[in-house]
UniProtKB/TrEMBL annotation:
Subunit comment: Homodimer.
Keywords: Cytoplasm, Gluconeogenesis, Glycolysis, Isomerase
Family: Belongs to the triosephosphate isomerase family.
Summary of the function given for this chain in its UniProt record: Involved in the gluconeogenesis. Catalyzes stereospecifically the conversion of dihydroxyacetone phosphate (DHAP) to D-glyceraldehyde-3-phosphate (G3P).
Binding residue positions for substrate: 9-11, 173, 213, 234-235
Name of the encoding gene: tpiA
CC per GO annotation: cytosol
Keyword Isomerase listed: yes
Record protein name field: Triosephosphate isomerase
Pathway the protein contributes to: Carbohydrate biosynthesis; gluconeogenesis; Carbohydrate degradation; glycolysis; D-glyceraldehyde 3-phosphate from glycerone phosphate: step 1/1
Length: 251
């Protein structure tokens, strides 16, 4: 059985006070949930404070990005080692906004993934197609390139520390959500691809999250699909009540 994982990507929101207040508000709402892994990803400046606030809760902390070098003359970058030191257990890599706005490539995503795994972080590896790519029937070729590129050179022994998040770019922050069937189709494809790259047992154990306008109202249908193991949540994770509603998708 794959343990569901619900992750909240706070993107460029929340001051230190706002971020810790959100943890304080969220924690009691989900304290009874013991069969779902819960992760939040604050901005870099709030990681330590959020990690401290979450210490005695079920909430784990992720960073929204990292660099592939451990240290050196790389102004403005943050290494996986420093993220772990600040209290992170997870890191998001290859988010579509990083690819779209900051020049992320399959090579940089792969280098970051390897560095994060080496540092002992769990990687939330993001993949997803644009609207133009979906409309030109390129979804599966795009996903294959991104999954294969992100996992290149990653040994099977490290796959237990990788979670893949499928986020159709056309559904992020737009209010549009892939239908349950559309999401399941791509998730099943990702699992079959990982089975080809590794083995069926590794693919069966891999958690694959859906991201893209996930809300309390649509999470249950998504989570009922055979190959959807959780969600990477954007806007709805910025309010305790709505995020808790997603975490408590089982009722």
């Amino acid at each position: 059985m794959r343990t569901p994982l619900i992750a909240g990507n706070w993107k460029l929101f929340k001051t230190l006070a706002e971020a810790t207040a959100l943890v304080d508000e969220l924690a009691p709402l989900i304290s009874a949930v013991d069969d779902v892994e819960v992760v939040v990803a604050p901005v870099f400046t709030a990681i330590s404070a959020v990690a401290k606030a979450a210490e005695k809760t079920v909430i784990k902390v992720a960073a929204q990005d990292c660099y592939w070098e451990e240290e050196g003359a790389f102004t403005g970058e943050v290494s996986p080692k420093l993220l772990k030191d600040a209290g992170c257990s997870h890191v998001i890599i290859g988010h579509s906004e990083r690819r779209q706005y900051f020049g992320e490539t399959e090579e940089t995503v792969n280098r970051k993934t390897k560095a994060a795994l080496k540092a002992g972080l769990v990687v939330l590896l993001c993949v997803g197609e644009t609207l133009a790519e979906r409309e030109s029937n390129a979804t599966f070729s795009v996903i294959k390139t991104q999954v294969s590129g992100g996992l290149a050179g990653i040994p099977a022994s490290d796959l237990a520390h990788v979670v893949i998040a499928y986020e159709p770019v056309w559904a992020i922050g737009t209010g549009k959500t892939a239908s349950d069937a559309q999401a399941q189709e791509v998730h099943a494809f990702i699992r079959s691809l990982v089975a080809e790259l590794y083995s069926s047992s590794e693919a069966d154990a891999l958690r694959i999250l859906y991201g893209g306008s996930v809300k309390p109202e649509n999470v249950k249908g998504l989570m009922s699909q055979a190959d959807i193991d959780g969600a990477l949540v954007g806007g709805a994770s910025l309010k305790a009540e709505s995020f808790a509603g997603i975490v408590r998708f089982k009722g």
